[in-house]
Automatic annotation (TrEMBL):
GO molecular function terms listed in the Swiss-Prot or TrEMBL record: calcium ion binding; calcium-dependent protein binding; transition metal ion binding
InterPro entries referenced in this protein's UniProt entry, alphabetically: EF-hand-dom_pair, EF_Hand_1_Ca_BS, EF_hand_dom, S-100_dom, S100/CaBP7/8-like_CS
Keyword Metal-binding: yes
Positions of the EF-hand domain: 63-98
CDD domains recorded: S-100
Pfam families: EF-hand_7 (PF13499)
Name of the protein described by the UniProt record: EF-hand domain-containing protein
This protein's UniProt keywords: Calcium, Metal-binding
PROSITE patterns assigned: EF_HAND_1 (PS00018), EF_HAND_2 (PS50222), S100_CABP (PS00303)
Record has Metal-binding as a keyword: yes
Amino acid sequence: MACKSRVSDAIATLVGVFHEYASKDCEEGKKDCGKNVCIDHFKLSKSELKELMQKELDMDNVKDPAKLDELMKELDEDGDGQVDFLEFVGLVAGMACVCNDFIELMLSEQAKSE
């Protein structure tokens, strides 16, 4: 689906990437109903989150199991052991804000030096 604006394209990409990774374990037969929660293909499992973070966000620090557990715990607001789309968007929005803060800082420093 072709979008008419850069923001629409960005939204479509964000949704598409989330669902591409959220369905990986289902396609590979790894998701099923566990003891406490039924894992579904509309949420990211820990392994799916790890793969998405490494491949799409260039974040290698999630290779450390403790860091991945910490990230999962922080993102999983409803405590179901998975990351839903809203929880994922919170991560992306936070990262976008940090990037914007950095750009604003660099631009203000540049303006001071001129």
